[in-house]
Design brief:
Its cofactor is Zn(2+). By secondary structure, this protein is an alpha+beta fold. The protein has helices at residues 4-18, 140-143, 154-162, 168-173, 183-193, 206-227, 235-242, 274-277, and strands spanning 28-33, 54-60, 63-68, 71-76, 81-89, 101-107, 114-121, 129-133, 261-264, 269-272.
């Protein structure tokens, strides 16, 4: 699932394409909906996006927001979605339901093959979402967002962690508490902080919370720097290569050499290093257990 660093990379890339510093802003030419499930709104017509030039591209948590014409196109890539840019999309309409493309946006140009992007989704579980709204806060997921993880100062972070009795990995992933962190970067942050994903947030000591705050900022800032300036097509591979434990089950931990282990859930999994994070103990591979006995 794309998280804050990759979404910020996509936003930076789109901003250069749609709001170039040395040329007029792009204008939406056409929005083509190819999957019935992708568009979550009906009150604002799609053609309102073409009523004027693009005026902004921003990130809200893990959402991409493009302000254009008299509306906002808000996109959430969910677990298996992606944004694929093309400098020249072939003319002609696509057939709905054929292939992974769920939504296509073309921008005006004096050529047949216009620039634009496709929202694609792999797999059968369709959770990719697009909204056309007057105000991004009309999107329920944005309205529920907590503060952006990189906007929280240390004092606020200490209060936040101390006020929650949930497991720390779940807390980091809760978008209503901290916006932008998902499954992958929560694994990476907890590894950097030497903390078990099952640790209870409110029971962490002062030193633990200090390490966690520094790990959160350091991990996210490094990932954003790594994504900066990369074309959209390179962001996924860049993310995978930078991971230390997430997605590396069975491989050696780059810090201590121990084997990276996994805990599997119904629709996701986490990875961790026993030596670095749990004092050598193996976490039970079920949601409600603390440790293997």
């Amino acid at each position: 699932m794309p998280e804050m660093p990759e979404v910020q990379g996509l936003v930076d890339f789109l901003r250069l394409k749609l709001l170039p510093p040395d040329a007029p802003a792009a204008v939406v030419d056409d929005v083509e909906v190819l999957s019935f499930s992708v568009l979550k709104t009906a009150n604002v017509p799609l053609d309102l996006l073409a009523a004027g030039p693009v005026s902004g591209v921003e990130r809200r948590g893990k959402f991409i927001v493009i302000a254009a014409g008299g509306a906002n196109l808000v996109m959430h890539l969910a677990k298996a979605g992606w944004l694929r840019w093309s400098d020249g999309l072939k003319p002609g309409r696509l057939r709905p339901g054929k292939g992974p493309i769920a939504l296509r946006v073309r921008f005006a140009a004096d050529v047949d093959e216009k620039p634009g992007f496709d929202l694609t989704e792999a797999g059968t579980k369709k959770s990719l979402a697009a909204y056309v709204v007057k105000d991004p806060l009309e999107v329920p997921g944005i309205a529920r967002l907590g503060p952006d993880a990189l906007d929280v100062d240390q004092e606020s972070f200490v209060r936040l962690v101390g006020s929650h009795s949930s497991q720390i990995k779940g807390l980091l992933r809760d978008q209503s508490v901290l916006a932008g962190i998902g499954n992958a970067y929560s694994d990476e942050i907890l590894h950097a902080a030497h903390l078990s994903p099952f640790a209870i947030a409110s029971k962490l000591g002062d030193d633990d919370v200090q390490r966690l705050f520094e790990a959160m900022r350091g991990t996210l800032e490094a990932a954003i720097a790594g994504a900066s300036g990369r074309p959209a097509a390179e962001l996924k591979d860049s993310k995978r290569k930078a991971m230390r434990v997430h997605g590396r089950t069975g491989q050696a931990c780059p810090v201590c050499g121990d084997e990276v282990r996994e805990v599997s859930f119904a629709d996701s999994s986490l990875q961790y290093c026993p030596t670095c994070q749990t004092g050598g103990k193996l976490l039970a591979d079920r949601r409600t257990s603390k440790f293997l006995k």
